[in-house]
């Protein structure tokens, strides 16, 4: 996890978008959003979707920050 991903202003929108995307994806495949009724296999699918989408959205956010403000990322490396 990079230093940028630890910032609250970055992780909060990433977490919210990930949660919404995971819920939408699971509803699209037919899993109801009632976590207390999930079995072990459904929890495994949920967590795998959540982690995969979180990494993807975090990467896209990181690229957005790099494009908008390259000094934010490159200043740390120098």
Number of strands: 0
Distance between the termini: 19 Å
Radius of gyration: 16 Å
The description of the largest β-sheet is: none
Helix content: over 70%
Q: Per DSSP, what share of the residues sits in E-state strands of 2 or more residues?
A: under 5%
Describe this protein's structure.
The structure is a single chain. By secondary structure, this protein is mainly α. It has one domain. It has helices at residues 8-28, 40-68, 70-77. Helix 2 (40-68) packs across helix 3. The relative contact order is 0.14.
Question: Keyphrases for this structure?
Answer:
mainly alpha; elongated; 78 residues; 74% helix
Task: Lay out the secondary structure.
Layout: H1 8-28, H2 40-68, H3 70-77
Tell me briefly what this model is.
This protein has 78 residues and is an all-alpha fold. The chain contains three helices and no strands.
